[in-house]
Amino acid sequence: MRTAKLEVFERNEKGHKVRREQFVPGVIYGKEVEAASVKFRKKDADKLIKESGSRAKLTVVLNEKESFGFIKDTTRDVLTGDLIHMDIQVVNQDSEISHSVPLVFKGTDALIYNRLILQINANEIQLTGKAKFIPDVIEVDVSNAKSGDTILLADIDLPDAVTCANMEDVPLAVVTSAKIDEADEMTDTAESNSEDVPAEETGNA
């Protein structure tokens, strides 16, 4: 999978001024680079996160120099949900690192159709391995899950080159039956019965 690229600019302004100019303030740091205050074009940062995730691998371009790294942390406005800050950690691609990777549960539409609920206990897991082998996200297919099923770390197929420090029996999610409101059931029953009763004829015999 192609690594996304993000242009980074040095920043001397305060965060609020940067945001007014449609940039996102942030920090870039790592063993091989000096920590620096930076900014990113908001449209570029939003696109990157939408397409690759909030912990994605990326190539950052600062002063025409390219470096490999990860989105380490993001902050969003609690009211608008807008991205207001982002930190990037620069690493060597062959370095052994630990990195939090988001879990993406696929097939939830099938659960809803079967009146099942997915109770998520973990939104991300900590993976360890060479930086270049750590995925942007881990997808978990729950489309065939049944009520009472527990999704464990052991059920997930991890890339061969990475490991997870979490216990394998940690429940990541649990599937339960949706509780149908009794009033809704009564309404559905009444509507069903009314459909079976023929309408009364009007007028004189």
Automatic annotation (TrEMBL):
Keywords carried by this UniProt record: Ribonucleoprotein, Ribosomal protein, RNA-binding, rRNA-binding
InterPro entries: Rbsml_bL25/Gln-tRNA_synth_N, Ribosomal_bL25/Gln-tRNA_synth, Ribosomal_bL25_b-dom, Ribosomal_bL25_C, Ribosomal_bL25_long, Ribosomal_L25_dom, Ribosomal_uL5_bac-type
Domain Large ribosomal subunit protein bL25 L25 intervals: 7-87
CDD domains attached to this UniProt entry: Ribosomal_L25_TL5_CTC
Domain Large ribosomal subunit protein bL25 beta intervals: 97-178
KW Zinc (keyword) present: no
GO-annotated cellular components: ribosome
A Pfam family matched in the record: Ribosomal_L25p
Stretches with biased composition (Acidic residues): 183-199
Gene3D superfamilies: Ribosomal protein L25, beta domain, Ribosomal Protein L25, Chain P
Region annotation (Disordered) ranges: 183-205
Family the UniProt entry places it in: Belongs to the bacterial ribosomal protein bL25 family. CTC subfamily.
Role according to the record: This is one of the proteins that binds to the 5S RNA in the ribosome where it forms part of the central protuberance.
Quaternary assembly: Part of the 50S ribosomal subunit; part of the 5S rRNA/L5/L18/L25 subcomplex. Contacts the 5S rRNA. Binds to the 5S rRNA independently of L5 and L18.
Protein name in UniProt: Large ribosomal subunit protein bL25
Organism (species): Lutispora saccharofermentans
